[in-house]
Write a structure and sequence with these properties.
The chain has about 425 residues and is of the alpha/beta class. It folds into 2 domains: about 210 residues, Rossmann fold, CATH 3.40.50; about 170 residues, Rossmann fold. It is built from 15 helices and 15 strands. A 7-stranded mixed beta sheet has the order 7-6-8-9-10-14-15. Strands 2-1-3-4-5 form a 5-stranded parallel beta sheet, sandwiched between helices. The chain has a 3-stranded antiparallel beta sheet with strand order 11-12-13, with helices on one face. Helix 2 packs across helix 11, helix 2 runs parallel beside helix 12 and helix 12 crosses helix 13.
């Protein structure tokens, strides 16, 4: 062998070793997870928090020896929350990086695109934050699993909350504002479905559909003020929620009606970005809360995240953290991260204790829909300075049982992919 060829081979070997994450050697067996999260723009905080929490979980697991002799390797590429870019990244991960799992996304638009890639390549896709119910109903395929609540669960809890409120503080009219794509439309349709299911009487006086990341909500705010709903249901998320609330404050909108956002409105990002501006008495929820449940596991997760990132987590963080632990648990059971079909069986019906679980409850993945089943709490904004820079947090909690907020079989029969249809009871 010529010295030039030998040096070339040595350089290639060194490059491959340098490409491995710190603490992973070339001879190590690995579980490779390819993530896609936005890292900039309005959804960027969700991506940053998701990556930080996933890295935290990977470090915890690897520090204990990994899983069945395998070290976890986590890689992320900025998807910019764009479906076409996320698809390109996922295909590269599968063809060139040889990942065992694709992972992540905060946008339902990107999630719906990625599930097609997952199905085509028979690669398990762990959804950690995007919430469109279509992924676990109309678009469900064998290799998709979600480890955070979907919009149906949030809206079922929301309908129960509104039913209780109607009994104590009578209301009759609703309006809705949400982003003009699957996530926004799913919320509104599912809220109305559940209000009807639970026998709630209401009248819709307005629907408003801004584009995702709209810069100016003035026209929507003035239309809402004119329509005068008793309750304004918000389907906005992330920076869009922050922008809408800040722009609506000078109009006195929150003194005229209840702002109610049971899916993405109760994110810590809102509290930290608005401080004392945020009105008390808004009814909100999210997929994780820093101050609920008041358990040792949730407190540890929140404080460990703060130590790593220097800030308190948005709800996206806990979803990513949960997804890593779900992968570890499945591989622990199967023993081989490349045995995809056995891993699918391991995920179906998996029971996994997570930071957001209250005492006496353990999250589990519904074997029928591949959707995680979890308790949901809805709270009201109150004064609270325990998580600076926020001066508001949620309190006065109403808690809804996990099973009562899942889609009934009748709903799934009308909203099922061919794969799900073949699994439903006759």
């Amino acid at each position: 062998m010529s010295s030039r060829k030998a040096w070339g081979l040595l350089a290639l070997a060194l490059a491959l070793v340098m490409a491995l994450p710190l603490g992973v050697c070339a001879q190590d067996k690995v579980i490779k997870i390819g993530a896609m999260y936005p890292m900039t723009g309005r959804p960027g905080l969700y991506g940053l928090d998701s990556v930080a929490a996933a890295e935290m979980a990977v470090a915890e697991i690897n520090a204990k020896g990994g899983v069945k002799g395998h070290k976890l390797v986590f890689i992320n590429t900025d998807s910019q929350a764009k479906p076409d870019l996320a698809v390109q990244i996922a295909k590269r991960y599968i063809s060139s990086e040889n990942v065992h799992f694709i992972f992540g996304e905060v946008s339902s638009g990107a999630g719906l695109a990625l599930t097609e890639v997952s199905s085509q390549y028979k690669k398990i896709f762990i959804g950690t934050d995007h919430a469109s119910t279509q992924l676990t109903s109309d678009k469900l395929q064998p290799y998709y699993f979600r480890v955070s609540n979907n919009t149906f669960q949030s809206m079922a809890a929301g309908a129960l909350y509104l039913k209780e409120r109607q009994a104590s503080k009578p209301w009759t009219t609703l309006a809705y504002i949400g982003p003009d794509y699957a996530y926004g439309h799913d919320q509104w349709n599912e809220l109305k479905y559940n209000l009807d299911r639970f026998g709630v009487k209401y009248k819709v006086v307005g629907e408003y559909w801004p584009k995702l990341a709209a810069p100016d909500y003035t026209a929507f705010i003035t239309a809402i003020m004119k329509d005068k709903p008793d309750i304004l249901v918000g389907g906005l998320w992330g920076g869009d929620t922050v922008a809408f609330i800040k722009q609506a404050l000078p109009y006195g909108l929150f003194q005229k009606m209840l702002y109610f956002s049971p899916d993405g409105g109760g994110n810590y990002e809102l509290m930290s970005a608005t401080g004392d501006e945020l009105p008390v008495g808004l009814a909100l929820s999210g997929r994780h809360h820093n101050n609920w449940p008041d358990t040792a596991a949730n407190k540890k997760f929140v404080q460990d995240f703060f130590k790593k990132a220097g800030r308190y987590p948005s709800y996206a963080a806990e979803g990513a953290y949960s997804g890593i632990y779900a992968i570890a648990q499945a591989v622990e059971q199967v023993g081989n991260p490349a045995d995809t079909e056995a891993l699918v069986k391991a995920f179906e019906g998996m029971k996994i204790k997570l930071p957001e679980d209250p005492e006496g409850f353990t999250s589990y993945i519904d074997p029928l829909t591949h959707q995680i089943v979890q308790v949901q709490a809805i709270g009201e904004t109150i004064a609270n300075k325990d998580f600076p820079p926020a001066t508001r947090m949620l309190g006065n909690w109403k808690v809804y049982k996990a099973e009562e907020i899942m889609p009934p079989v009748e709903y799934l029969k009308d909203h099922s992919s061919e794969y799900l249809k073949g699994r439903l009871p006759k």
